[in-house]
Amino acid sequence: MQPRIEGAFQVPANLYLTPVLQGTRRRLVQLALVLLPGLASTVAAVAETAAGGPDLHRYWDDRCQGCHGDSADFARRTLSVAGGRLQGRHHVDELPRFLGQHYLAAPLVQPVLAMLQAQVQAMPLYRQHCRRCHDSAAQLARDALALREGRLVVRTRGEPVDALLARHGGLDRVQALELEATLARVAHEVGLR
Ligand code: HEC
Ligand code: HEC
Fold it and tell me: Exposed end of the chain (fewer CB within 10 Å): N or C?
């Protein structure tokens, strides 16, 4: 975790706190006093969402994107899957151990590995067919999708995503099925349950 220096105090790089930190120095002191005992739990707290699970994509954007760029592009460019296991270009067999020592909170090592592995294996359909009109798949999932009884739907009107993709986005049937699976995974990765 990378601490950020604010005045004379070290405050965890919890982005949600930024507006508060723009207050007076006195408020900063009070805030630091409140925060310091909670440092250990901060990493997990950053990634939790109101919806349920941790938001892995937000976590990536906060902690990893600055050096590695978009997670799916990074995964496709740098990583590969062999024998069902994710491998790096440099860290071939010991990628999980490397990640455990590399900016990543311990409980998130396995979920982030799983996300990167899925990204290596998925066709870049969203990028090719949707991205020119929409924000990232993760943001679309946060803003517009929901899981209802295990089914992926458009949140506002409850329309199943498979029905949407049959009339919207220009995919053929096989591509639509694959993208639906990808969007369901991404929905899960941003914490929808
Ligand atoms: C300050 C820059 C920086 C940040 C932040 C950062 N990384 Fe890295 N990362 C690197 C560098 C440099 C390497 C290559 C070093 C090496 O291979 O030993 C690397 C290597 C990797 C690799 C292995 C690539 C390979 O081919 O073996 C993975 C996977 C990875 N990072 C994931 C992450 C994740 C996940 C995060 C966020 C939790 C993250 N990184 C944050 C700089 C960064
Ligand atoms: C040519 C531009 C364009 C492309 C390409 C496109 N969309 Fe859309 N999409 C739109 C517009 C415009 C809307 C309607 C926005 C609104 O009224 O909220 C929309 C609506 C949606 C909605 C419903 C949002 C809501 O809250 O009602 C979803 C989900 C969606 N698109 C997913 C996709 C996916 C997945 C793809 C790729 C297969 C895709 N779109 C391709 C322009 C596009």
Answer: C
Q: What is the pTM of this model?
A: 0.82
Q: Is the CB of 57 under 6 A from ligand 1?
A: no
Ligand 1 atom nearest to CA at 78: 26
Cα 94 from chain centroid? 23
| Residue 175: both structure tokens together | 């591509």
Contact of 145 with 161, CB cutoff 8 Å: yes
The vertex-189 CA angle with 184 and 193, nearest 5°, equals 70
**Token pair of 34, please?**
């409140």
Name the nearest CA neighbour of 160 among 184, 140, 136: 184
**pLDDT per residue as tens digits for the range 167-186:** 999 999 999 999 999 999 99
How far does CA 33 lie from the centroid of its chain? 30
Kind and range of the H or E run holding 147? strand 145-148
- Give the up-direction half-sphere exposure of residue 105: CA atoms within 13 A in the CB hemisphere: 20
Alpha-carbon distances, residue 89 vs 60, 86, 115, 141 (angstroms): 19, 10, 17, 30
Q: Is the CB of 144 under 6 A from ligand 2?
A: yes
Cβ(27) – ligand 1 distance below 6 Å: no
Nearest CA to ligand 2 atom 16: 144
| pLDDT lower than 70: segments of the chain | 1-51
